[in-house]
Amino acid sequence: MIKNKAISKTLSIVIIVVIIIAVVAAVYLLTTPPTTAVKEVKVGVILPLSGPLAQTGADMKRGIEFAVRKINEQGGIKSLGGAKLVVVYGDSAGKPETGAAEAERLITQENVVALVGAYQSSVTKTASEVAERYEVPFINPDSTSPALTERGYKWFFRVTPHDEMFAKQHVEFVQWLEEKYGVDIKRVAIIHEDTEWGTKSAEAWQKYFSEAGYEIVKVVSYHAATVTSLDSEIDALKAANPDIVLVASYVSDAILFVQTCKLRDFSPLAIIAQDAGFINPSYVEEVGEDGYYIFSREVFNWDLFEVIAGLKEVNEEYKSIYGVDLNGNSARDYTGMWVLYYALEEAGKKADPSDLKAFRAAIREALVNLYIPKEKLIMPWDGVKFDEKGQNILSKGIIVQMMPDDGKYHTVYPPEIATREPIFPMPKWSERT
Amino acid sequence: MVSPADLVNAIVSGILVGSVYSLIAMGLALIWGVMNIINFAHGDFMMLGAFIAYWMFRLFGLDPLLCIPLSFGTIFLLGVLVQKGIIDRILEAPLISQIAATFALVLIIRYGAEAWFGPFTRRIVTGYSGEVINLGSIILPLTRLLAFVVSIIVALALYLFLTRTYVGTALRATSQDREAAQLHGINVSAMYKLAFGLGVGIAAIGGVLLSTFYPIYPEMGAYFCLLAFIIVVFGGFGSVFGAYVSGLIIGVTQCVSALFIMPTLKDVVAFLLFILIILFKPTGLFGKGG
């Protein structure tokens, strides 16, 4: 009896294994399209498709898919006889080591001509290390850690602006406010959460604001995971009597910050935030009127649909397919794929994908010399042009402000794409109704 | 550099926030004192209390302060069930099993809440959320002042319950000597349920009070639970009133050190003070013996 049971157990395991293999094979055969005569160019895309950022990853994947669809619809890569763009996805699960392993798989097993990804700066860092080693072009549409383009990599190209560029833009924005409103701003205070992101943001602010002649009167940091009250922090800022306050926070601490400013009647001329918590949907929903008048930097905003030529049509088509509007992530990844497309057109004139090594080198060369004017983009940028470090120097952020009439963020800077005039200075808490 | 007004403000801030720490810690001390169980999930019961207040406010417009009895009652019952279903079975188990069991409870409650409500941050804004009472240069936000008053009332009620009622006396007897209490006809098992229910119920009240001035999210209990542990040890293991006073001391230490040293180091100073006290009086400030 006992022996029989043991046999049946082994047998059942064997059966299960056979079934699994059969199912996988069936799915593979049914879903893999038959090879066609039309040439294909295979591109690898690494995104966090599972794990805590799965939702964000799925959103960016839509941007990629949509770009590929549009590119193939307009005739594929013409210099390669209308070759279709095909994407092979790698799932980083949000982990740097998995991202690197996926990059390796896409390069050595899938033989992709280039890589695109990978959202989180930490993952982009490791995945692009692999690409650099194999001499494969890596296009990064969506990571903002300045360090990524300071590594001297030859095969790394970042399309999005990074955090230091945002800090510089904050300085320009403040100077613009001074001029526009005839106000003298001198004293700047900073409050930031103390992980790498907040600390680096604060360092960049300190650097660029002091270079521009502003006085940094106070820098306060706190630990977002353990903060129970920001009373002392706000009191310290208030005591330093700054004209403006720069803030880098996650969600719940951003709410606590705003609440505490109100209760302790702290009203600088302006509060300028470094996106993150301040543009998170749950912050926007919960902060209510206490969040009015606060500025934040952004990469994209819903009201740009009215301002950027062609964006509205692109968005309408996107929405008809996916049911949601383009946002900062999907729009940047969409743009990243188009940047790759323009490079592929150039590369196709010089090499053929059958010689992988030569073709990858040709893509790199095309990227180095690439210039895309802003008319061809859906982003609020001046265009695409990479410097010798691989950074797109024509990209930039925007500044948005939460407006009291509808509680939404509106673009107020740069002026050429602004949909509203900024409200400045911020009304004092006691004067609000 | 530091003006007297700043100092008074820091102390006031510390007492106001400390009174909520105290309440949460008091519940933990009660559970430890009666049952010798380390309840890692304490902060998560607190979080549930805050969420009950949030949903009642969101769905029915019920003021969080009026939600205190409901929050307390619900979490009390949940505590009794947990005691009956889980804690009761591990009372005699090795320490590591007890830790594993209450830690499993943490995971279930915290990530259950996250799966159910989503990882989002929420807040309660009532008509008086932004009210501030200014006494000269002293800033007293109304929500915190109310939290302080409620905290004192709850602490006082617990004191009267433990010292002036038969059941309270029985509870204290159980905490002093379980077998002797049993010999005197006290239903120890019922006392345990009462202690656990009361302990987490009081934490839930702390959660409700927090919800009036602090963002509400599924992971909010983690740091408050750590603070509560430190406060309980600081106050002398299982000393309920030691825990209350220690909570205030920790709150004031945080705020005053933020003023004199720097805000970033406020937790460091509070924990250093804790280590110093434990070095010189291992049983805690109000602990017996040592």
Spatial ordering of strands, largest sheet of chain B: 1-2
Distance between the termini of chain B: 41 Å
Distance between the termini of chain A: 83 Å
Number of strands of chain B: 2
> What's the average pLDDT of chain A?
90
| Number of individual domains of chain B | 1
CATH class of the largest domain in chain A: Alpha Beta
Radius of gyration of chain B: 19 Å
What name does CATH use for the topology of the largest domain in chain A? Answer: Rossmann fold
Helical coverage of chain B, percent range: over 70%
Which tags fit this structure?
heterodimer, A: 433 residues, alpha/beta, Rossmann fold, 3 domains, 7-stranded mixed β-sheet, 5-stranded parallel β-sheet, 14 strands, globular, B: 290 residues, mainly alpha, ABC transporter involved in vitamin B12 uptake, BtuC, two-stranded antiparallel ribbon, 73% helix
Quick recap:
The complex is a heterodimer of chains A (433) and B (290). Chain A has 433 residues and is α/β, with parallel strands linked by helices.
SSE blueprint:
The complex is a heterodimer of chains A (433) and B (290).
Chain A: H1 2-31, E1 40-47, H2 54-73, E2 84-91, H3 96-108, E3 114-117, H4 121-134, E4 138-140, E5 156-158, H5 163-181, E6 187-193, H6 196-211, E7 215-222, H7 231-240, E8 244-248, H8 251-263, E9 270-273, H9 281-287, E10 295-298, H10 311-322, H11 328-350, H12 356-368, E11 372-373, E12 383-384, E13 398-402, E14 409-413
Parallel strand pairs in A: 1-2, 1-3, 3-4, 4-5, 6-7, 6-8, 8-9, 9-10
Antiparallel strand pairs in A: 10-13, 11-12, 13-14
Chain B: H1 4-35, H2 42-60, H3 68-90, H4 95-117, E1 132-135, E2 138-141, H5 142-164, H6 166-176, H7 178-183, H8 188-211, H9 221-235, H10 240-260, H11 266-280
Helix pairs in contact in B: 1-5, 1-8, 1-9, 1-10, 2-3, 2-4, 2-8, 2-9, 3-8, 5-6, 5-8, 6-8, 9-10, 9-11, 10-11
